[in-house]
């Protein structure tokens, strides 16, 4: 059994990790780190775990965590990079759900996160944890930077077109909507029920941190620098992301050609479901799952591809993808423990 620690276990991404791992056939939850709820049983904090998991939350004990095989760090941005070096020194593998180890260049991180990176040597070693793109590197990694939710939805939706050479790399637009769990469990007026319900709003226009992460992977796929226009929106539902991506093409194409590009690119990827031509993704089809659904349309008038991509922001956009990475790290079938269908209702 893989001995597992989850640090930040009582946040939304952390508790989704706990839920998935509590039923994982090859994993044993040994440590649940939570400063806010230290000393309380997880089934007291989240009563859905009654009769499912009997384990106390506790303050961070690096020596105890060091006895595990892998640690998931579901900590706030900035906190992870102060803890992870000590975990790596103790010889355990780390899958980090923050933004601290997702970047190829420390200067890009520092620009968008507004603080120096304290472990640039580990940042250089970290592997970007998107299995569909970096599976071979993930297999031998000590440290994985688990991608963000907006980024996973946008990157998987666009990379096939960028790699095909058909995409015009200027003026790519990503218009994305997220459920409220994307803001985390912390309290804030903007996320109160009366502020969110029956309301849709854009936020952090042209300044959202995930812009830089998306640009990094778009540039890697295209082989040249790619800058994008990214606009996130908050919509009145709990979980799910839907991204609409507009990519101008460098020549005339067809619906059939675009469809084939996507079907060929993802033909061996279980967790990426390319919709049939004319069928488009919906968030209710992916909520509660590790799937990402992608539909592509050709706008003949404008010579433009319009890609629709949907996933669960705390599933494939966080905890589900993290477990997928763990499965790869330890030589398991990567579908283990995360093969379930979405909630739908």
Can you tell me about this structure?
This protein has 345 residues and is α/β, with parallel strands linked by helices. The protein folds into 2 domains: 124 residues, Rossmann fold; 164 residues, Dihydrodipicolinate Reductase, domain 2 (2-Layer Sandwich), CATH 3.30.360. Helix content is 32%, strand content 21%. It is built from 12 helices and 14 strands. The strands form 2 sheets. Strands 3-2-1-4-5-7-6 form a 7-stranded parallel beta sheet, sandwiched between helices. Strands 9-10-8-11-14-13-12 form a 7-stranded mixed beta sheet. Helix 8 runs parallel beside helix 10. The mean pLDDT is 96.
Overall number of strands:
14
Helix content: 25-40%
CATH superfamily of the largest domain: Dihydrodipicolinate Reductase, domain 2
- Kindly name the structural category: alpha/beta
Give a short account of the largest sheet. 7 strands, parallel
- SS field, number of helical segments: 12
CATH-derived architecture of the largest domain:
2-Layer Sandwich
Number of domains: 2
Query: N-to-C terminal Cα separation, in Å?
Result: 33 Å
CATH class of the largest domain, anyone?
Answer: Alpha Beta
């Amino acid at each position: 059994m893989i001995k597992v620690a989850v640090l930040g276990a009582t946040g939304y991404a952390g508790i989704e990790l706990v839920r998935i791992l509590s039923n994982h056939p090859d994993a044993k939850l040994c440590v649940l780190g939570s400063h806010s709820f230290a000393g309380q049983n997880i089934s007291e904090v989240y009563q859905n775990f009654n009769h499912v998991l009997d384990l106390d939350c506790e303050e961070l004990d690096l020596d105890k965590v060091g006895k595990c095989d892998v640690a998931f760090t579901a900590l706030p941005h900035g906190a992870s990079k102060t803890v992870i070096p000590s975990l790596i020194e103790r010889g355990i593998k780390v899958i980090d759900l923050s933004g601290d180890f997702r970047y190829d260049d420390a200067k890009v991180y520092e620009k968008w996160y507004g603080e120096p990176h304290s472990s640039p040597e580990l940042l250089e070693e970290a592997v970007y944890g998107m299995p569909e793109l970096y599976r071979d590197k993930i297999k031998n990694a000590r440290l994985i930077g688990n991608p963000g939710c907006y980024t996973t939805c946008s990157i998987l939706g666009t990379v096939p077109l960028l790699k095909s050479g058909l995409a015009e790399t200027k003026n790519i637009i990503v218009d994305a909507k997220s459920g409220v769990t994307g803001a985390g469990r912390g309290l804030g007026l903007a996320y109160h029920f009366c502020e969110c319900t029956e309301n849709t709003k854009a936020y952090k226009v042209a300044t959202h941190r995930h812009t830089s992460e998306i640009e990094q992977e778009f540039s890697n796929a295209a082989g040249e620098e790619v800058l994008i226009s990214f606009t996130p929106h908050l919509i009145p539902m709990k979980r799910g992301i839907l991204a609409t991506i507009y990519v101008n093409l460098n020549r005339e194409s067809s619906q059939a050609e675009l469809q084939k590009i996507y079907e060929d690119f993802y033909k061996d990827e279980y967790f990426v479901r390319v919709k049939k031509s004319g069928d488009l993704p919906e968030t209710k089809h992916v909520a509660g799952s590790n799937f990402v659904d992608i539909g592509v349309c050709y706008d003949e008038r404008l010579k433009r591809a319009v890609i629709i991509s949907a996933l669960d922001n705390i599933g494939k956009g966080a905890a589900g993808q993290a477990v997928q990475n763990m499965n790869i790290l330890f030589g398991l079938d990567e579908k283990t423990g995360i093969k379930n269908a979405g909630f739908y209702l």
